[in-house]
Amino acid sequence: MSAAPPPLKTGFSASPKGRFFWELHGSGGRETVCLLNGLAMSTASWASFLPQLIDAYDVLLYDYFGQGGSSCDDVPCLIPDFADALERIMDAAGVPKLHAVGVSYGGFVAADFARRHGDRLHTLTLSGILLSHETLFSMYQELSLRFYRGGPEVFEVYTHYMYEKIFGEAFVTRFAPKLETMRKNFHDRYRDRVHALIRLTEAQNPFFESLDANLAGYAAIPCPVLILAGAEDRAIPPRVQRKIAELIPTARCEEIEGCGHVVYLERPDVFWPRLRRFLAEKRGEA
Question: Residues 127, 104: contact at Cβ < 8 Å?
């Protein structure tokens, strides 16, 4: 598959706490898909996957605080702020409505955008998130924060633990020679700004503290919702992701075999065709 061309537009969206970097890819004027980053990602992380979409859709990307080209100050941040930033970015990019696709951390942002700005959505796709209180996830989050706060040597250990935790067996076996390069790239990208990982992770605390008060808002999300869960996801198991479909009447959950938490990367042969089929259903093309 050929590489994607340079972005059609780029820009920055200002907020009281800093600025968000964004990119719009494609030819302009078409239905737009927004791919929302995981915790340790940036707009650049999507480069090799853009050809999966830009033949038929424009694609909007943006970085949260601490990622890519956005501000990286050591200040508290909130997931609803990231959702509201997306609405401002849409206005700046000339995108009236979009299809939101949130993976892992990006799924929290996507879900909150749908709760707060549902009229700006065609569809919502989520992968690797939860909208329920789960003790094991709380333990996983607290352990991650201990690693982040533990200093350089402890962070080094974490970069090994993280990849063991999030990927499925088949992916690790197939790409074992490349995992050390992936791990080192992650380590080098964040070793001097671990505070960004801390702030982004801490932003999940008020998200879950207000979860019960916001459940009715999530249940009222008006657009079609697709949940793509990795069958071997140990961070957020499929049984937990299926609870989202029980909460949102317009949602359905599909489990993808042979992958863990990072479905779009581990099984691109399944994730992207299923996403395309879902988007086509909205258009009446399926």
Answer: yes
